[in-house]
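Good morning C.,

I know you're traveling, so I'll keep this short. The sequence:
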Amino acid sequence: MNVTALIPAHNEESSIVDTIRSLKSQTRPPNRIVVMCDKCTDRTAELSLQEQVDVLHSVDNTGRKAGALNQALDAILPPLNDDDLVLCMDADTVVEPHLIENASRRFEKEPGLGAVSSNHLIHRHGTVIELLQAMEYERDRRMIGRRKGRYGCMTGMAALYRVAAFRDIKANYGEVYDPTNWTEDWKLTIALKHLQWEMVRPQNCLATTVPVSDAKSLFIQRERWARGYIQTLCQFGLTKFTAIPWLKQLGLLWSIVTRLLLLLLIYLSRHHLFTLWALLIMGIFVADSVNTVRKAGWKAIVMASFFPIEFLYSWLITAAIVSGYFKELSGAGSNDTWKRVRR
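The tokens, ready to paste straight into the viewer:
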């Protein structure tokens, strides 16, 4: 089973070497590493060549990351066998040493498996916003683990695909990645489901990535993710594979309602906030919050003890999602310039 690692990169000189070396340090290294330089004006290509990997350059690409990936796949897929694997990963992501080995075993055991996604974590968190993202990603990893990995998007941070699945996508949709979609990974995930390919996010396939460092960048990132998610659901309509994601939108509404009710409850009981019963209830909330982030480190444990900070963070994420949905469904901001925010 041949494994090709494909790294789309746009001015990633600060991280590309670490990304490549994490691939070379795998217990099962890829047979080939390809860096697709998309309109790079820095030393990304030079540093990649120094690491002795293959470097491609996009040509007249107007399709952002998806367009660059499609050009690279057109070059690397033809000589590969259907059961070979392609690892697509971001240029600011570091994969854990056993990721390819563990993922390859899943593909060998499950012939109908089309994709294996990493669970992504944060490998540095110097600011409060970065730490809150680390806590969010750790909770996401725990939730996916409870569902045995059969959940969620095949993340662009790091995911392996069976070549046969890529060829199936291209045959049915014209291109592997959709350049018109705000988040091409969600479109690819839902498309694979409609073609009856199985997907999984195992707990033993981990990758760490660089978070956005401030609230504004985080809002832009999550707004874009939300736009791509709802755009994908609209593109496919209501099917047996999109019914549950559509129903989950009621969960967003419910989360807003419950948080508003919590604020109302706090206001109504403001004169009793330091009574024994109120402190016990708050203690339960804090204990659960701490428990779900304990593997993210002591800073996360301390942060989880301060309920108001996480509460404000949840509202920031919700506001970005609502804004993204509004822009996509109303057509507002349809001419927005694509912002390259780290994923």
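Safe travels,
E.
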